[in-house]
Design a protein that fits this description.
Metallo-beta-lactamase, Chain A; about 25% helix; 7-stranded mixed β-sheet; about 30% strand; globular; binds zinc ion; 9 helices
Length: about 300
């Protein structure tokens, strides 16, 4: 069987990349690189062994992160859940397979409120999936998705009606049930000792990057600031689901520069499982270096 969890350490912290499954996206170019100039895009895709005309499906991996600091048990993002796609919603099963019950988790960090990051907040019947956890989210993000202006702003950002409806429906279903467990933050802060919240807005208004530090080691959970490895080489190629393309591009430069300078381990939610690797500088931008050699199955 394909491996769906992967354990590693960051300093003294025991970490685990845990899969929620894979969602197949059709028309990947329109989703991932809608503004990219055709000729340049073709060249770049070919370099990545992708034939532009034949690339009709992109397997979007969803990999959440569990961090045991010794004091806290923290989950970052809850995946899509299984209600939209039977290929996803594997998170709880995969946690249980590693001996982790939902009630063991004391902190859930939601990097942003897109369906694939909040869809596992609830289980069948709408009950909270992690009943003992404090849910931490950027206040701007919560306010955006729970306000009336979200629909209007998504329309203004050019999101089509179908996409708007899916995004808003997931927010309506998955945010209100956690209201009693919610801890909204408004500035960079330490969520639990060793995990710091950094605002990385652009993809969404309150997109957050958790920075996990122990000893002299560091893990950056970049979430959807970068969705495909090509975005590291071509950071100016925003996505169709980036609410503010301009801000996304600026944020990416900051994150990638930090990742490369700090030689930090990086967790990228949508990169091939387990989504772990390093960012290195190359020809004025950056390149992804997965550490696949550590994953043997
Ligand atoms: Zn995502």
């Amino acid at each position: 069987m394909k491996k769906e969890s992967f354990s590693f350490r960051v300093g003294q912290f025991q970490c685990m990349a845990v899969s929620d499954g894979i969602h197949v996206y059709t028309d990947p170019v329109s989703l991932l690189f809608p503004g990219a100039p055709a000729e340049h895009l073709e060249k770049v895709l070919r370099r990545h062994n992708l034939q532009p005309d034949e690339w009709t499906e992109w397997k979007g991996t969803y990999t959440c992160l569990l961090v045991s600091t010794g004091k806290n048990l923290v989950l970052v993002d809850t995946g899509l859940g299984g209600r939209l796609d039977p290929g996803t919603g594997r998170l709880l099963h995969n946690l249980q397979a590693e001996g982790v019950s939902p009630g063991d988790i004391d902190t859930v960090i939601l990097t942003h409120a897109h369906p694939d990051h909040i869809g596992g907040n609830i289980v069948e019947g709408g009950r909270p999936a992690f009943p003992s956890a404090r849910f931490v989210m950027w206040k701007k993000e919560w306010d955006f998705w729970t306000s009336d202006r979200a629909a209007l702003e998504l329309a203004e950002a050019g999101f089509d009606e179908h996409l708007r409806e899916i995004l808003l429906q997931f927010a309506r279903e998955n945010l209100p049930p956690i209201k009693g467990q919610l801890d909204l933050i408004e500035q960079e802060t330490e969520i639990v000792p060793g995990i710091r919240a950094v605002l990385t807005a652009g993809h969404t208004p309150g997109h957050m990057m958790p920075v996990i530090s122990s000893g002299d080691e560091q893990l950056l959970y970049i979430s959807d600031a970068v969705v495909h490895p090509i975005h590291m080489e071509q950071p100016q190629w925003y996505m169709a689901t980036d609410i503010s393309p301009e801000q996304t591009v600026a944020t990416r430069h900051q994150i990638l520069d930090k990742a490369a300078s700090d030689k930090a381990l990086v967790h990228a939610f949508h990169f091939p499982f387990p989504g772990l690797g390093y960012v290195v500088r190359k020809e004025g931008t950056w390149q992804w270096q997965p550490f696949m050699h550590l994953v043997t199955e």
